[in-house]
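Appendix C reproduces, verbatim, an entry submitted by the partner laboratory led by Prof. M.T., so that reviewers can inspect both the input and the predicted structure.
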Amino acid sequence: MNGKTTSIIGALGIIAAAALILSNSEYILGLLSSSLRINTSGMVTSVNLEVYWDSACTNKVTSIDWGIIPPGGSAAKTVYIKNIGNVPITLSLNTENWNPPGAANYLTLTWNYTSGTKIQPNNVLPVTLTLTVSSSIQGIDSFSFNIVITGTESQ
């Protein structure tokens, strides 16, 4: 072999070695890092309601003044209950914190809500609350209490 042939064979060997290193490097780099992005979205169940004086839901109810109710009489107030959650709800009604405590024996709060009626998200339901005073009430000339309206998720 002459010097040119040796140089060519040597050069080919260097090129082959470089190609082998390069291909192995690309393969190794591909194993070291890989990314994939998956977009996600969803909702968490939300049960929430608000009570308004108007059907347009612009004036929130923060308190109710029943006025003067005679023994044996009643007073009614219409309110609008809006489901501001993201699931259908049903409602329940309770009272608490009666002042004086004995007032609960003579005053009865009812409503015209039909038990089990579902309110869909963003829907509004008019409800009439009625406070009735027993004709046998004694010793109570003023009162206060809290109305508790609870929304429960409905399937």
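The first helix runs from residue 3 to 32. Additional entries are available on request from the coordinating office.
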